[in-house]
Amino acid sequence: MDRERYFGSSAVARMACIEVYRYLLQILLVRRQDWESLPCVVVTEDLPGGTILDASREARNGGVRVGMRFAAALSLVPHLRAGTVSSPEQERADQAILKALNRLSPAVESFRSDPGVFWVGTEGMQRIFAAPGDWGSACREEVLKAGFRCRVAMGWTRAGTYAAAKAGGARGVRIFTSREEEDAALDAAPLTLLPFTPRDREQLLDLGIETIGAFRLLPAGSIRRRFGPAVREVHQFLHAPVELPVISAEPEREKTYGTACPYPLRKREELAFCLEALLRQAAPDLQRYAESIAGVKLEFHTENGGSTSREVRPARPTRDLAFLEKLINLRLEGLDLGMEPHNGVVRCALHVETVPISVRQGSLLHARGDNGDRVVSTISLLRAHFGNGAVGRLALEEGFIPEEIVAWSIAECAPPVQGGIPRERMRPERVLVRRVLNEPVPIRVRKKSGSVVAVLSERAGGSSRSMRVVRSLGPYVLSGRWWADGYDREYYYLELQEGPMLWVYRNTREGSWVLQGTVE
User: How does pLDDT run across 262-290, given as a tens digit for each residue?
Assistant: First the structure.
């Protein structure tokens, strides 16, 4: 193959997909090498009701399949071995593979929807390797040195290389010579290669969708309504723009600073002083490696042999050690070591996660003290005091049912501040606000001549409250999802004699009434 044709620099990003096949099983076999030639599976929990996540060839030959319960698989293969893979184990494996691939390319990106899959940018490799196959073989050798076996596919798009790597054999490197060849292979690939749950895969196969090409032709608007957000995410992945580059995901550096306490510490002030001294030890390393602190894990070992830990994570990476000390002090307020005589802290440790410093962080002309910095500080303080899950955000979702169109997720970073509110928008305006309840409330209604005249709501203690309705607007019919659980609702706006307007609906299947929210 002409290496300039494939490796040559052009506007189209060249990439490779590295798939560590049977990823969870390989991680388990690193720990249990004595199971290498035995039937074994990876399960969600070490119980008979645990679900099988991965299975060895010997187990699959005995009829064991992913998605089975361990008890059912054990009836097929009586000598079946089972084990779990923890999140720290998987993270360590991810970091080892990232470091191995970083030796061959600065652009390495992991696929969060399918563990064990990585994309690697190949631009510029023609100056180092004589042919693309040599570079692909070098990738397999580096991952093998990290303790894992993998497949390699090289082409033009994420979806095309992903399907080729998943479909390829355990040996060799698949190389596409043109976009047309890659697209044809992608459309002809079986649907089972995509990261679907067993239930979603069965639903699609029941509809006669057996290839990736047939799945790509489905209209995007109906994917989420019929199958949910996970299937929609896979559909969007298959239609991702070709020009999307591989995003470099450099492995995070983690450093540990520890010290033995001169005597058992039982006061928070003493612990804070010890941790601040450890944090100051990290300052020279931050300067040497041009890094910022993304998170700090506090670890305490007590006299009775126990241990406890707390995590502090600022809203964005920082090098402000004084601010981190303030966050650590807030986190220690919730620490309860108890009043037992042998429960003092005898050793403290700091696990510091660092990331490379950005250009903006290192700029001498970067303005400080703006609104963005205040937002970041506030979010960091809230996290330190109430925990990392205390700050979240609302995001609109596609859907028709009111309780499903808004999703709450943990905010990983501070939202960008776009400046102040324009002067023309600072004037007070009278607008109607619809407030949707987190949980719909069952109610009773009283009707007269077909119109709602009163609403009865239950109070604490078993009593009820009656609210008179002066005007009723509706019904507004909403129905759908007949292929699953289904819903049929009649929505009404009820204007009360006093108080906010109610937004209610009647479940026509059950005849029950529910308060969805209010309009103020």
Answer: 888 888 888 888 888 888 888 888 877 77
- What is the spatial distance between Cα 106 and Cα 112, in angstroms, rounded to a whole number? 19
CA distance readout (Å), 71 to 46, 56, 57, 59: 11, 17, 19, 14
pTM passes above 0.85: no
Q: 198: cis peptide before it, omega within 30°?
A: no
What pLDDT digit, counting tens, does each position of 133-176 carry? 888 888 999 999 999 999 999 888 889 999 999 987 656 788 88
| DSSP tag of 425 | G
User: What is the rounded CA–CA span in Å between residue 471 and residue 497?
Assistant: 9
8-state DSSP, 241:
-
DSSP secondary structure string for all residues of 265-284:
E-SHHHHHHHHHHHHHHTHH
How far apart are alpha carbons 174 and 187 in whole angstroms? Answer: 16
**Bridge partners, residue 434, by sequence:** 519
Helical spans, DSSP H, in 23-69: 23-31, 57-61
In degrees, to the nearest 5, what angle opens at C-alpha 380 toward C-alphas 378 and 384? Answer: 120
Strands (DSSP E) found in 212-340: 253-265, 291-302, 307-312
The residue-averaged pLDDT of 309-336 equals 82
Whole-number Å distance between alpha carbons of 421 and 209: 50
In this structure, is the dihedral angle defined by the CA atoms of residues 165, 167, 169 and 175, taken in order, positive or negative? negative
| pLDDT at 400 > cutoff 70 | no
